[in-house]
Write a structure and sequence with these properties.
Layout: E1 9-15, E2 17-18, E3 30-31, H1 38-56, E4 61-68, H2 76-90, E5 92-102, H3 109-118, E6 122-128, H4 132-137, H5 144-157, E7 162-168, H6 175-187, E8 192-197, H7 205-208, H8 216-232, E9 236-239, E10 242-244, H9 251-257, E11 261-265, E12 270-275, E13 280-285, H10 290-296, E14 304-307, H11 310-321, E15 328-329, H12 331-337, H13 345-353, E16 357-360, E17 363-366, H14 368-372, H15 374-379
Helix pairs in contact: 1-2, 1-10, 2-3, 3-5, 6-8
């Protein structure tokens, strides 16, 4: 691998606790069943960050994303402690994007104000649906009224940049109900909307006992109708499940899709760090259990590090970049993987022959047919 330009770097912070785990969720999250030693967990993440510094000297952090779990459960003192230390260790530029995921059932006006005062400048609010019946079916702990109040509380606290998470193809959902959810979201004027289909993931209660979901044809109708509504409201469709007002795309997620680097802090967190002098890309992974993670940070060389092979790098790049609705310049492949373009030349030819992509002036973009068969397109690189 040969890298000629610096790779953008972001920071992911995993807060693994939830009030209640949703039956469709396969993320690394843990129900609050006992007293959480949040202070010890925060200190473990700070220690992990300190140990990561030699790998990233001189590289600015472009964004921070607090995911989970339910990061809005974090205490004000814990958030302030972490951000003050991260700021001292990394230095934050004036334009840094700092996002925190929030559950409408775990926040109030005062807590949103505390997040804003601590330096959080973007929220991602997990609405999922504005229909109480659907929220109950999804195992969510909030109501539609609480969802509306959470958005108003965020605005009242000073947040001008926020995302609303919505799902479609929910149990027994009709086309009209899916569109109604989108219309409700648009009325609240978020700067960003994440809109994705409910899927049945292994090792979840929904996978073991599937609820009655809309069939594929109806799910596709929902997606098309909701995309049209969002487009009419001025939201740009820039990634498979992401829509944003002009200039409000999520930088942190764009960095994933463009195969940038990221530090992953916390239980179960994954990271990717490129070493240009060595011509190598490394993956990091932390233990999934919060207790095991805290204990791991006591070891001289914590975590698990894996060298990314050329084959994995080219697959992972395409897995992410092909999600970009406006495509990408093919030079990005070499800049991010350090590999010459000829290692994917055969696949590029096949994609063009099957009319899955167009390539013009070195810019690759999926056709409508390619978007429809995206899994098959990605499968070419396995």
């Amino acid at each position: 691998m040969n890298f000629t330009q610096p790779i953008p770097l972001t920071l992911y912070v995993h807060y693994p606790w939830c009030v209640q785990k949703c039956p469709y969720c396969d993320f690394n999250s843990h129900t609050l069943k006992q007293t959480v030693d949040e202070a010890a967990y925060i200190e473990a993440m700070i220690k992990q960050l300190e140990q990561t510094l030699p790998l990233i000297w001189g590289r600015p952090i472009k964004s921070i994303f607090f995911g989970g779990g339910t990061p809005s459960l974090i205490s004000q003192s814990g958030l302030n402690r972490f951000l003050s230390q991260a700021r001292a260790l990394l230095g934050f530029g004036p334009e840094i994007e700092i996002t925190l995921e929030a559950n409408p059932g775990t926040v109030d006006v005062e807590k949103f104000a505390a997040f804003f005062d601590a330096g959080i400048n973007r929220l991602s609010i997990g609405i999922q649906s504005f229909a109480d019946e659907k929220l109950k079916a999804l195992g969510r702990i909030h109501s539609s009224d609480e969802a509306y109040r959470a958005v108003e509380a965020a605005k009242g606290a000073g947040f001008k940049n926020f995302n609303l998470d919505l799902m479609f193809a929910l149990p027994k959902q009709t086309l009209a109900q899916a569109v109604a959810d989108i219309d409700s979201a648009i009325e609240l004027r978020p700067t960003h909307v994440s809109h994705y289909q409910l899927t049945l993931e292994p090792n979840t209660p929904f996978y073991k006992q599937p609820p009655p979901l809309p069939d594929d044809d109806l799910a596709w109708e929902m997606q098309q109708a909701c995309q049209l509504r969002l487009a009419e409201a001025g939201y740009q469709h820039y990634e498979v499940s992401a829509y944003a007002q002009p200039g409000r795309s999520c930088y942190h997620n764009l960095n994933y899709w463009e195969f940038g680097d990221y530090i992953g802090l916390g239980a179960g967190a994954h990271g990717k760090i490129t070493s240009p002098p060595q011509g190598q890309v490394w993956r990091t992974q932390m233990p999934a259990s919060p207790g095991a993670y805290i204990n791991e940070m006591q070891r001289p060389e914590p975590g698990r590090t894996t060298l990314v092979s050329d084959e994995d790098a080219r697959f992972e790049f395409m897995l992410n970049a092909l999600r970009l609705q406006n495509g990408f310049d093919l030079s990005l492949f070499t800049l991010r993987t350090g590999l010459p373009l000829d290692v994917i030349e055969a696949e590029l030819d096949t994609m063009q022959t099957r009319q899955w992509v167009t390539i013009s002036d070195n810019h690759l973009q999926l056709t409508e047919l390619g978007k429809q068969y995206l899994n098959d397109v990605i499968g070419l690189f396995l």
